[in-house]
Amino acid sequence: MPATGTIPVTLAVVDPSERHNGTGLVRHDSPLDEAKIDADAAKIVRRLERSGFQAYLVGGCVRDLLLGSRPKDFDIATSARPEDVRSLFRNCRIIGRRFRLAHVVFGSKIIEVATFRRSPQTEAPVDPVESDGTGDDDAELAVDEDLLIRSDNVFGEAHEDALRRDFTINALFYDLDRRQVLDWCGGMGDIQRRTIHTIGDPTVRFREDPVRILRAVKFAARLDLGIAPDVYDAMVMNREELAKAARPRLSEEILRLLRGGAAHRSMFLLWEVGAMAMLLPELSTFLDDDEASPGASKRFWKRIDVLDQRTKAGPVDDLVYWTTLLYEPMAEALAGSKDPAATLTDFLEPIVARIALPRRAADGIRRIVGLLPKLAKGLVDGKLSRLGRADVALQALDVLEIDFTARGKSTVNVDKLRREIAPAAEAARAEGRANRSRRGGRSRSR
Ligand code: ATP
Ligand code: MG
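That is the input. Now the predicted structure with adenosine-5'-triphosphate docked in place:
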């Protein structure tokens, strides 16, 4: 830091072309298709810039636009602090206690505006005796055998914000005014090669946050990208680190893998790298052990293919994802069971404990599986009226339809049944929701 008194009293506004000098920035003149950029996100960036802050589109939206796919949402990174953002946008709320973010709200759309932050690991004290000061020796690792990031809340500069991110393709910033992609870590080359690379040593990055292993699977599957060999090897080598991750993140990330429309590729990769054995051993052993029930894994993959088709056609309920994913090993467990309800509980409870599958989801799966034989029978003998009263009837019907399609059976009657039971099922669902919120209300007030 310069000595006091050497700083000019008025801070000169830095010419944007001089910004980030000396940070290793590479600028790419790669204009994104303006028509595909969310107009509200662009407005936020421009207003922040006009107010003297740095502001860029970042992360998934830049990656997706460069790869030619449609971004799910638009995120902004800025030098403005959350309070600055709030003072500029009336439709802004600040969320998060530990790391505060600004959400600018446009109806049902939320644009996340995050202040640049840096990796807390860059602050780790390096043993001055062991280290040669380059930062790339083993001593830095020895500082903390357990690299897991537990807090992530330090403001920083734009380049630090890029480098704290997980994969190079996720660390590109887009400068709307200059129509340039800002690249501090070779992400643009990886976009062109369609390859997933971690920023820095993959083992370190996966040990800092093992959920990144699942994120690599997600991007590879959803965007049809290759995984660099050293990254792939590190995913395999570090898969057991997943046991250290916060458990709700695990079930949430599995759902994201299922929801992406590339569940087949995702689940295959998850199984192949051995991460499925950590998260859902009941499914991975089922897939490993095809000889025990020949054709069963083929049925599983067919079912997941149908699930992908359904995802592409419209929204799918989370319960349908979970039940379809676990259907085959559940059916195997249930075969010959004298007490199906207890068998299902025994099957699902370890999953609740291991990946924090929400208890409500476990209950829903149990009820759907219980309903399936009755629905299938109802389709044959026409006694359907009571089935619609179950609050998971429609989801059960979706699971059944996926099952029929995967087996090549006609689904004409399923469609008919859906129309018949829809009103009663919707009413039962609404009632279930109301009961739950009443129960929730009581427990909160305790
Ligand atoms: P998606 O299209 O699935 O939303 P995304 O890349 O936008 O993909 P998000 O989970 O929305 O993913 O995260 C936004 C950005 O935040 C990422 O692009 C990445 O730069 C950064 N990020 C998210 N999770 C991590 C993580 N676990 N470690 C480091 N950086 C992360
Ligand atoms: Mg995103």
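The two ends are 53 Å apart (CA to CA).
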